[in-house]
Amino acid sequence: MTPLEYRAALTVVGMTEGTARELFGIDEPTSRRWETGEQHIPRGVALSLWLMAAYGVSTNEAQTLSKSPRLIT
Q1: What is the gyration radius of the CA atoms in the chain, in angstroms?
Q2: Which has fewest Cβ within 10 Å: 16, 22, 30, 73?
Q3: Residue 2: what are its φ and ψ, rounded to 5°?
Q4: Of 11, 12, 8, whose CA–CA distance to 54 is shortest?
């Protein structure tokens, strides 16, 4: 995932940078490095965003799932 694709995916799923940091457990400098291409965007993050966009998973749903792993069976 390129930095441009990352920013576009955040927009498509309606996720702010702050919410992305919280959901993916990263700090602001890491988020900034992903956005500028200084650091590779992990495959799991890219996959999560692509699946959220493809299946219409809202930010709220993703946050709920991330906090309640028992919901995923």
Answers
A1: 12
A2: 73
A3: -85, 165
A4: 12
Unique residue bearing structure tokens 């602001």? 28
Which residues lie below 8 Å from residue 29, measured CB to CB, with a gap of 6+?
none
Phi, psi of 37 (to 5 degrees): 85, 5
- In one-letter notation, the amino acid at residue 24 is F
Residue-by-residue DSSP string for the chain: --HHHHHHHHHHHT--HHHHHHHHT--HHHHHHHHHTSSPPPHHHHHHHHHHHHHT--HHHHHHHHH-GGG--
The model's pTM: 0.83
- Domain locations in the chain as residue ranges: 3-71
CATH class of the domain comprising 3-71: mainly alpha
